From TrEMBL:
Pfam families associated with the record: GST_C_2, GST_N_2
Active site positions: 41, 177
Coiled coil: none
Residues engaged in binding glutathione: 74, 111-114, 129-130
Protein name: Glutathione S-transferase
């Protein structure tokens, strides 16, 4: 936090781009690039989700740091059994992530953050800004993707996506950190008020546009959904208590956001990117200024409790959650009829978009 007690995020330092241009410094090639990520970090989580949705697992290899952020920064486990889900540094056997930063730029003085997009050919960092990495993964590697036609940044929606991204980032994605790391009352009050005003705005947006489709922009899943999801997934288990963002929970205060998140979580490949053990242990054990005992509370993630499940591609909900979201009692024994109308949907992967078709 700054002297006035307000949290200010450092700007990412490495901002090169991978290109399809054969003359470019960093050319899109299969198995040339490597991702360094944390399963706890919402910014790295964005990248893993887009990698999964595009089908780039065989193109972009990954190393996963330990969930604990210590005095030396992110660390790789030397024994993967000690931290299930984390890996060794597959490229150089580094002990700390900072070794990769210093390999790329000796004398580097900035923060050692994830995600990192690394070039295995020139042994350097291409980019460490998550918003730019997901744009690269969206189209630049299409020649090697299993779903090359899928785009999460369609040209027709770019002004709207950019506009929504701006206020969601400032008020929600970064807003939880501004509340959690505030060291004075006034900046905390500002941040938490701004945060819940923005969550209310998302809730009203989803409710107003429910007939158009399940996502923030109707029938098309976009990067705006991905960027918001990684914060919402962590909200109730971590940000609500640990960061004092406790006016409401997503579970009890935002039924439309809850259903939206459940639908996204049900998409193929998303569940595998979500690791609540890493998330809760990272926040509660790393931030000793906030939680000096490092005791990890017993927390639950509603999306992972089996309250939501997929049948024929539909995201359905348990009856008590249906009542909470709609105010209506589900009297039928059929879970299909419990899905909140006005539309029942079945998700399909197409060559160009995630689209919706009506189920009978």
């Amino acid at each position: 936090a700054s002297k006035d007690g307000e949290f200010r995020r450092q700007v990412s330092s490495f901002r090169d781009h991978v290109s399809c241009d054969p003359q470019a410094k960093f050319v899109a090639e299969k198995d040339r690039y490597h991702l360094y990520v944390s399963l706890a970090c919402p910014w790295a989580h964005r990248v893993l989700i887009v990698r999964a949705l595009k089908g780039l697992e065989d193109c972009l290899s990954v190393s996963v740091v330990h969930y604990l952020l210590g005095p030396e920064g992110w660390e790789f486990p030397q024994n993967e059994d000690d931290c299930p889900g984390a890996t060794r540094d597959h490229l150089y056997g580094a002990h700390f992530l900072k070794e990769l930063y210093l390999r790329a730029e000796p004398g580097y003085q900035g923060r050692f953050t994830v995600p990192v997009l690394w070039d295995k050919k020139t042994h350097t960092i291409v980019n460490n800004e998550s918003s730019e990495i997901i744009r690269m993964l969206n189209t630049t590697f299409d020649a090697f993707a299993t779903r090359p036609g899928v785009t999460f940044y369609p040209e027709s929606l770019r002004p709207q996506i950019d506009g929504l991204n701006d206020w969601v980032y400032d008020s929600i994605n970064n807003g939880v950190y501004k509340a959690g790391f505030a060291t004075a009352q006034a900046p905390y009050d500002r941040a938490v008020t701004q945060l819940f005003t923005a969550l209310d705005r998302v809730e009203h947006h989803l409710e107003a546009h429910a007939k158009e489709g399940p996502w923030l922009f109707g029938k098309e899943l976009t990067e705006a959904d991905v960027r918001l999801f990684t914060t919402i997934f962590r909200f109730d288990p971590v940000y609500h208590g640990h960061f004092k963002c406790n006016w409401k929970t997503i579970e009890f205060g935002y039924p439309q956001i809850l259903l939206w998140a459940a639908r996204l979580y049900a998409l193929p490949g998303i569940k595998e990117t979500c690791n609540m053990e890493h998330i809760k242990k990272h926040y509660y054990m790393s931030h000793v200024n906030i939680n000096p005992t490092r005791v990890v509370p017993v927390v639950r993630c509603l999306l992972q409790l089996g309250c939501f499940w997929a049948v024929d591609g539909e995201t359905l909900m348990h009856s008590h959650l249906f009542f909470r979201a709609t105010g209506r009692i589900c009297s039928s024994t059929s879970t299909r009829s419990c899905f909140p109308c006005p539309w029942n949907t079945c998700l399909h992967l197409s060559s160009s978009i995630f689209h919706l078709s009506r189920c009978g």
